[in-house]
Design a protein that fits this description.
Layout lengths: L10 H10 L1 H11 L6 E5 L5 H13 L4 E6 L2 H10 L4 E4 L6 H8 L3 E7 L8 H10 L1 E10 L19 H17 L9 H7 L3 E9 L8 H18 L5 H10 L19 E8 L3
Parallel strand pairs: 1-2, 1-4, 2-3, 4-5
Antiparallel strand pairs: 5-7, 6-7
Helix pairs in contact: 1-9, 2-3, 7-9
Length: 279
């Protein structure tokens, strides 16, 4: 990977995100796994949320699939590895050649799932081509990139200007774009990227999932922590007025603290693009 993200402080966030997105993982495991699936891989798995969902779905249906989670950082999936010893975890990255990835998997895969990781690769087409070669002929590559941003807030909070969350999302995107650089301006959508990497029978699923309002407990903690991380990370791209509003919204001692509200929710949508290896 060529980005400068420091993943170590985010291990707790990754685990929380995997738990919070459990419904989405379960939906996609149900759509992607079949009785004929022998090896299914969660590539760039982080804490292994999709790997666990695929294992649970396989067990519930009596499928014989072996589930593998691969990530460049073993500490990200260490806790899940201890909790789910029947899921195989190993270290691997987009920089590995296909034969090394196949070795880490333990054989060519029937299904490789990648979510929110490809935009960190130095060359997305080359990364997809590498994963394509780690599939068996007839295997499927599933890329969960894109969709809309996560919705959490009412349009008008009665503090600051309406559209606060949308402007934060724009600031985060601007920071990511600046950090990754112009080489990541692919200029076309993921289905075209997948086709360019040599995959066929391309199609897309759009999935709506999430937690309805009012949020509370761990769900509220996760959303507040996510906002705090995004504001801190993208503060140089935020308007000074918006930044002052966010500082109040995220201050537990302020009467405007988001934790006092009963109208927050967690509703993301995701686009999952599929392509098959034909040769």
């Amino acid at each position: 990977m060529d980005d400068a993200f420091d993943w170590a402080p985010r291990d707790t966030d990754l685990a929380a995100a995997a738990q919070d997105d459990g419904d989405f993982f379960a939906i996609m495991a149900g759509k992607l796994l079949a009785p004929t699936t022998r090896i299914a891989v969660d590539f760039g798995c982080g804490s292994g949320g999709m790997a666990v969902a695929m294992k649970q779905h396989s067990d519930d249906r009596g499928y014989p699939a072996r589930i593998v989670g691969l990530d460049t950082r073993p500490q990200a999936y260490a806790d899940t590895q201890r909790t789910y010893p029947d899921v195989s975890f190993a270290q691997s990255s987009f920089e590995d050649p296909p034969d090394r990835i196949v070795s880490a998997i333990g054989g060519a895969a029937d299904l490789i799932w990648v979510r929110g990781a490809l935009h960190h690769a130095a060359d997305e087409v080359e990364a997809l081509n590498c994963l394509r070669q780690a599939l068996r002929t007839g295997g499927t590559l599933a890329i969960a990139e894109g969709g809309t941003t996560v919705a959490n807030l009412p349009e008008d909070l009665n503090i600051g200007d309406p559209g606060l969350q949308e402007r934060l999302d724009e600031a985060v995107f601007a920071r990511i774009h600046a950090q990754l650089g112009a080489t990541h301006d692919q200029g076309y959508g993921w289905p075209v990227v997948i086709a360019t990497a040599g995959l066929h029978y391309i199609r897309t699923h759009h999935v709506l999932f999430g937690t309805p309002q009012p949020l509370g407990g761990a769900d509220m903690d996760y959303v507040l922590a996510r906002f705090g991380r995004y504001v801190d990370w993208a503060r140089t791209n935020l308007d000074s007025g918006d930044l002052r509003v966010w500082e109040r919204l995220l201050d537990p001692d302020d009467h405007e603290w988001l934790g006092h509200r009963h109208d927050l929710y967690y509703v993301p949508t995701a686009s999952v693009h599929l392509g098959e290896r034909t040769a």
